[in-house]
Design brief:
By secondary structure, the protein is α/β, with parallel strands linked by helices. It folds into 2 domains: 200 residues, Aspartate Aminotransferase, domain 2 (3-Layer(aba) Sandwich), CATH 3.40.640.10; 133 residues, Aspartate Aminotransferase, domain 1 (Alpha-Beta Complex). It has 14 helices and 18 strands. It is globular and about 65 Å long. The two termini are 22 Å apart. The site of pyridoxal-5'-phosphate has 14 residues, from helix 3, strand 4 and helix 4.
């Protein structure tokens, strides 16, 4: 493996030379950082792409979800259902709005399980009192669409708002034969609920380091989101500066980091001295709200996102091609995720599940996914994206502060112990995918 070309799943995986050039250019044009025409252009692109009436940008998926929750008719202390095996960034906006998150277990596609959803709703209505559940969030995990129709039917039956968390699924499709869609239509994730949000975080489908978008067809909701957005600020110039440095810094430094094996230390120092910002701030792991959220999408990051949006189809085609290679090789291992029927995933990651202990010739045993990740790291392949160990990631999240009660979602807890995510992004070549497979086949049988 070439030490100067590390394979990484999450540092800055979508960045290409034109993105770096653009970031450099904007870095020297501070008058374009906060306000500018790129914000509206990005929103128009989303409306056109998803064929929706409204699109509102924010500085993150977190801010976008918070904007939706603030604009729905939900009182404090009422409940929002969402799946376990999620990121604290999807739970926190619920807590910040003083609502209670209630976790639903996942199905074999790593998405919200409709059966457990109905069970949890039934449980909440069984006490004779009015149910506190007001909304359901469906996440299309790693770009694999959830069982949208079943979940939509349940939401209609119980009169619940449906929010789609499309942080991982820009471009994923669900082919519906029912559900109010024209016959044989295929529709994009993000067009099924009352509202949906997207993320342009550093390791998402397209990336502007931070950024998010709300889409909806609901006039009343759109009006409220618009009013809410008017009241919030643009991020500060120093925050925007940090984000612009991110793609530049990783393009130059990642090979040096990995080659000298000092990456983690340098990254820590850069974050400590606020040259770069982390994707999740420390206080968020305890449910607290950093003052960076909610804020408007700054023009500088909208320009980066627009540039990436132009490449969306190519990015997703590439992900599907890489997934095909993994599919071919892993089909005999029975370690693959199962995509739902009638869906067209876009494979933001390619998850496989590994048993706990693997014997390795002359080396004793490997203790599951964690040690396999370490082995891959030694080969300059960085696949630790933080999506493991706990049902709310990253692994140092305080579960109690997230309102998660251990044992409530056993499948999500099990998945978190055995999952190993493989990269599919544009900077992974077919040869790289094959190399990863070859290395893994030494351990996994
Ligand atoms: C499933 C999921 N939902 C929501 C978010 C929040 O997105 P953002 O990081 O843009 O705030 C993330 C990302 O971290 C996520 O993985």
């Amino acid at each position: 493996m070439n030490p100067f070309r590390p394979i990484s799943i999450s540092f800055s995986p979508n960045t290409e030379p034109d993105d770096i050039k653009l970031a450099w250019r904007i870095l020297f044009q501070p008058w374009r950082w906060q306000k500018g025409g790129e914000i509206q252009k990005l929103e128009e692109k989303f409306k056109e792409y998803l064929q929706v009436k409204y699109a509102f940008s924010f500085n993150s998926g977190r801010s976008s979800l918070l904007a939706i929750l603030k604009s729905l008719d939900i009182s404090k202390q009422e409940e929002v259902l969402l799946q376990a095996f999620t990121c604290n960034a999807a739970v926190n906006p619920i807590l910040w709005q003083k609502l209670n998150p209630v976790f639903v277990d996942i199905d074999e596609s790593l998405n919200l399980d409709p059966k457990d959803l109905e069970r949890k709703i039934a449980h909440s209505t069984s006490s004779g009192q009015a149910s506190k559940i007001k909304a359901v969030i469906i996440q299309h995990t790693f770009g694999y669409p959830a069982k949208i129709e079943e979940i939509k039917n349940i939401c209609q039956k119980y009169n619940l708002f449906l929010i789609e968390d499309c942080a991982h699924s820009l471009g994923a499709e669900y082919k519906s034969k029912k559900g109010g869609l024209p016959a044989e239509a295929s529709a994009k994730a993000g067009t099924f609920g009352d509202a949906a949000f997207f993320s342009f975080g550093r390791d998402k489908i397209i990336s502007s380091v931070f950024g998010g978008m709300v889409v909806t067809n609901n006039d009343k909701l759109a009006q409220k989101i618009k009013e809410f957005r008017k009241k919030i600020d643009y991020p500060s110039n120093s925050w925007i500066f940090q984000q612009l440095l991110h793609p530049i810094s990783f393009a130059w430094c990642l090979p040096i980091y990995s080659c000298l094996n000092i990456g983690k230390g340098i990254l820590y120092l850069k974050q400590k001295f606020k040259i770069l910002s982390p994707s999740v701030y420390q206080e968020e792991k305890e449910g607290k709200k950093p003052f960076y959220f909610p804020q408007k999408m700054p023009n500088a990051l909208a320009a980066l996102a627009l540039n990436q949006f132009k490449k969306l189809e190519r990015f997703n085609r590439h992900r599907k091609e890489i997934a095909k290679i993994y599919n071919r090789e892993f089909s005999w291992m029975k370690v693959r995720i199962c995509a739902n029927k009638d869906t067209e995933p876009i494979y933001m990651r390619y998850p496989i599940f590994v048993k706990n202990v693997y014997p390795v010739r002359n080396q004793g045993f490997l203790n599951g996914a964690k040690e396999i990740r370490q082995k891959l790291k030694k080969e300059n392949i960085f696949v630790d994206d933080g999506w493991h160990t706990l049902p709310v990631v990253p692994p140092d999240t305080d579960l109690q502060k997230m309102n998660y009660i251990r044992g409530k979602c056993p499948r999500a807890e099990g998945v978190a112990q055995t999952i190993l995510n493989l990269p599919t992004n544009i900077n992974i070549s077919k040869n790289d995918a094959q190399k990863i497979i070859n290395i893994l086949s030494r351990f996994i049988r």
